[in-house]
Amino acid sequence: MSIEADHRDPLALAGLLQLVSPALPIGAFAWSQGLESAFELGWVNDEESLEAWMQGVLDDGLTHCDLPVLVRVMRAWEGDDAAALVYWNDWLQANRETRELLEEEHRLGAALVRLLGNLELLPTAPRIPETPGYVVMFGLAAWRRGIAEREALLGFAWAWLENQLAVACKALPLGQTAAQRIIERMRPALARAVEAASRLSDDELGPALPGLALASALHETQYSRLFRS
Description:
By secondary structure, this protein is an all-alpha fold. The chain has helices spanning 10-20, 35-41, 47-60, 66-78, 82-94, 99-118, 134-144, 149-171, 176-199, 210-219.
């Protein structure tokens, strides 16, 4: 099935909604991606600073790392290109700058392998990299569901946004209405990120998130924690 399947296909749309649902049993809710440490350090403490943090991560992280790699792995799944899958899986994991961020990539990837196996959605040939990460397995699920590239990227970014806001609602005095205001303001940014990520060449890829890397590293020894990263 083509990854450029008609996005109006109700089955593809339902598959996308299933893949980005908070109910997907992969444990994404347990990880804050350094955000909990940013709260502890006082870098993020209200609606305005939270939105600025997430906008920075979207622009300098997802747009130049996760999203363009997702394009490449979806094409590799469709083209049965095992070498490309291994390359981009290794490349992405090499760009996870702390133990916790790498562990998150591994654990969510392993959870998706188990889930897709139970749903009989894994490929019949052993094309899965030895230690598949979350992005590679998300790409497999999106391809198997016939989800078009841009819709898959938007869904991935939407799942990230919702998870970050869920973290903030648990760890900050941030209400659900404030979270919805941030979503409303960031929806156009998600669309712009997808378009930008789709145009990047290989030599333009790479995150630039020193603050997030520092926050994530400090989280490893943070005294009181709700989240695993």
